[in-house]
Structure formats: structure tokens, C-alpha cells
Amino acid sequence: MPGKKKVCVVVGVGPGNGAALAHRFAKDGYAVALLARSSATSSKLASELPDARAFACDVSDAGSVARAFASIRDEMGEVDVVAYNAGSGVFGTLDDVTGADFEASWRVNSLGLLLVAKEVAPAMKAAKSGAIIVTGATASRRGVARTTAFAPAKAAQRSLCESLARQLGPHGIHVGLIIVDGVVDMPRTREWMKDKPDEFFIQPSGVAELASFLVRQDRSAWTFEAEARPFGESW
């Protein structure tokens, strides 16, 4: 049982940032819990990493979150670090998206973060240490035509992060937000953008390295919001 190691939970494990975060925190010596709605990616990844386990979890559902974290505590111990990477959303204009699309995006990006924070905060407060690092997006700062459902959810997520940082910081818990400004390098994004050069894309390993750095920061100089942007990105 990997209970002697500190525990990092990666919420939202896919082939991009989620997998990179899992690899990075495993390298940092954590036992890693991998959360995803489907076990297709997370189970395979868990078999490749030391002291890693996959758990099915739908972050938009309170019962699913509660069950997943109860299993993590039972099998791995209390959680020391959360890398909250769940962030799906439907892209489209006002005419394209539905009310259900809007609510689903909010549930994954914002409600899910709230539910996860409520699960891990008590033990982190007791230990007077811990970290919750959230993968955010530029959409949290501005809405464009095709982010009608996505931008409001990310804005809510950012506001929640700031509220959590102010509440939990005095208890020794570092809440940090990574603003991902650019296109993450994944098979599907390469397929969509075949004409783009390598330097156009954000490397998931770079995002994961930044998350690791934020967790390791001296608490006298904590960063709340950090940007991850390829040097060629217009901003």
C-alpha cells in the first residue's frame, strides 16, 4: 500500500495535461490517484507509474466525487496535493450552445472544483499544509464569440480559486491557478492544426513542470496565478 508516500490526486486524466501531471508528480515521489470519468486512459497510465491507482469519478456529480475520495482515503491515505485538470466545455456561439451545454461546462469547471476542495480541505487544514493547483484558461479573463458556454465557467472557476486561496492560505494550503494561454499539444489538436509549427503548441510537460514548481514554492512567496504561454503566442 502506497500510504507512506504523500498523495497527489490528478483530477481529469486524459492524454494531454492530465497524463503529464501524473507523470510529473510520480517523478516528484507522490503516490498518484488518477481520476477520470472513463478508465480507458487512467487505468493504462496507472499501470505505468509506481504507486498509482485509477478511480472513476464524474466531478459534476457530488455523489461520485464523495465516493472517489472516500476510496482514495481508504486505499492511499489523506490527500496532500490536488492537480485539478478537469475543464471540458462546448465551444460555440449563442445560437450553437444550449442551456444544458452551459450548465455542463459550469459543473465540470467550477462545481467540480468546489466539491473536490471540500473533500480535501479538512485534512489539509489539520496538517497545516497542502496544495490545490488548478488548470485554468485565458477564457476566464475574456469571452469571445465561440466561448459562450466555456468562458463563464472558467471565469467562475478563477473566482472560486481566488476565494479558496484567500480562505485556505492562512491554514498553510497553497491554491494556485495556471492560466493556459494557447493550444495544448495533443494528437487531436495536431490533427486539427496540421499547418502549425511545433512552437505554436503548449507542451503538457511544461504545464506539469509549472504545477510542480507551484507546489514546491516557499510559502513566503506563493504565486496565485501563473501563465503558461508558448513564446510565439500573440498576447
UniProtKB/TrEMBL annotation:
Organism: Vulgatibacter incomptus
Protein name, per record: Short-chain dehydrogenase, associated with 2-hydroxychromene-2-carboxylate isomerase family protein
Source taxon at top rank: Bacteria
PANTHER family: OXIDOREDUCTASE, SHORT CHAIN DEHYDROGENASE/REDUCTASE FAMILY (AFU_ORTHOLOGUE AFUA_5G14000), OXIDOREDUCTASE, SHORT CHAIN DEHYDROGENASE_REDUCTASE FAMILY (AFU_ORTHOLOGUE AFUA_5G14000)
InterPro entries, sorted: NAD(P)-bd_dom_sf, SDR_fam
